[in-house]
Amino acid sequence: MNASSLAGRASARRLAVVVVLLAASFLLAVAVMVRIVRTGSFDTWNLVWNLFLAWIPFVLALLVYDGARRSASRPLLVVGGLLWLLFLPNAPYIVTDAIWLDDWRLTGAPFWYDLALYVVAAGTGGILGFVSIYLVQRACAARRGEVAGWLLAVTALGLSGAGVYLGRVLRWNSWDLLTRPEALLRDVASGLVDPFAYPRALVLTIACAAALLAGYAFFYGTLRTQLAKLEDR
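Now predict its structure.
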């Protein structure tokens, strides 16, 4: 089988993954709309919005991966990679929406229904995040070697852990780096200068990063063979 045929199959598999994830996202949006109509409450709409945000790093990762395979210029890939890294925490952030499950029960919707919404949103967001990391990791490995690819993946996971803390606890988001950079960087700098002065922030950041690292290791180890089929050869 020639190289073009293999590349075509890999592209078709990537398209299939995108279609499945789009279908899951669409079904979630429909299910949330049904809940809104039945209860009159918009409290679960944040699942749809957060899942939309989780798509941003996934799309950027696809662009970086395909750009690397097509020998795009280094500055273009660096810009794409930095944007991907900026929005990556939005994917695992959805998992923290579990804190709202008790509050959602007050609207009268069945708990099993809300739990199903959460599981679909968190699961889809997690897959979007991990697949995006894998694609960027492989793009980096193709240019700089396997060690560089893994260093990038581990660094991205660690920074995502910090990003989840900044978003859930301090209520910052990715857009704030573009709209309110000074205030956001001031918060980050204060923690970096003396991290032990903020023990809660330090513990939560490490816990989030460790959970993401463990999750990606399981994801990678379990699905490595299937993930390899997404790559152009």
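The chain has ten helices and no strands.
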